């Protein structure tokens, strides 16, 4: 029996995550090469599996040279084999595997694995959102938090939660560990496609930082900014962004 797109995304993210854990715990690689080895190993698995399971769809991977032939497809799988390579190599838990499917430019199906936590969050099996905190918690980069995110956090009197990968940050909102993920430092489509699909399916607000829609499978894969947050905070975050000086 063939897998649905949601089932396929979840199985791929889970299997790639397990492979990555085996690579990391093998003890055969130094920290200097562990991240690269994990990226390449998970990428090859995901590419081969997707080409076998969905041969007529387009593909975009962080770890593969972009082929603009994908622009002729309405269905394009967008993957990040290791989101948070630094965190993976440092044996932290805040890294992820992203398997997303954009349909006509919309992040429609996705699965995000958090392998170190043995968790896979998926768009086809949304769960009720846990209660939010009255004082918002905002996830930010643990190494280079964006100036705009820090300014918005000050306006909202939000608590800052430094964290690693984009997927880990986005899933922290889904899991009820924080209320707001605002990123203005620039990303690429593979950084957010799967997390946006999962977050949207769980009823969260997803948009650009100015409130405009996100678009995927574009010729230029750069995504300047991103907002994922609980719906009750969306307008306040957007208003705070609009109030910032140019």
From TrEMBL:
InterPro entries: CysQ/Inositol_MonoPase (IPR050725), Inositol_monophosphatase-like (IPR000760). This is 3'(2'),5'-bisphosphate nucleotidase CysQ. It comes from the Bacteria. Gene3D superfamilies: 3.40.190.80, Fructose-1,6-Bisphosphatase, subunit A, domain 1. Pfam families: Inositol_P.
């Amino acid at each position: 029996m063939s897998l649905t797109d949601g089932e396929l995304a979840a199985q791929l993210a889970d299997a790639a995550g397990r492979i990555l854990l085996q690579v990391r715990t093998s003890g055969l690689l130094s920290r200097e090469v562990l991240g690269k080895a994990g990226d390449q190993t998970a990428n090859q698995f995901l590419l081969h599996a997707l080409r076998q399971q969905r041969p007529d769809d387009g593909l975009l991977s962080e770890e593969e040279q972009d082929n603009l032939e994908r622009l002729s497809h309405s269905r394009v799988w967008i993957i990040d084999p290791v989101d948070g390579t630094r965190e993976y190599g440092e044996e932290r838990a805040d890294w992820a595997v992203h398997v997303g499917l954009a349909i006509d430019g919309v992040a429609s199906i996705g699965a995000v694995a958090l392998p170190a936590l043995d968790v896979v969050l998926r768009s086809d099996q949304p769960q009720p959102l846990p209660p939010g905190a009255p004082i918002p918690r905002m996830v930010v980069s643990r190494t280079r938090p964006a100036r705009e995110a820090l300014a918005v956090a000050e306006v909202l009197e939000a608590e800052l939660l430094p964290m690693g990968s984009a997927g880990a940050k986005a899933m922290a909102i889904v899991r009820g560990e924080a209320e707001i993920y605002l990123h203005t430092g620039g990303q690429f489509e593979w950084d957010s496609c799967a997390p946006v699909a999962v977050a949207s399916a769980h009823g969260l607000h997803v948009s650009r930082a100015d409130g405009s829609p996100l678009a995927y499978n574009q010729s230029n894969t750069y995504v300047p900014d991103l907002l994922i947050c609980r719906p009750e905070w969306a307008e306040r975050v957007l208003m705070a962004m609009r109030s910032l000086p140019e």
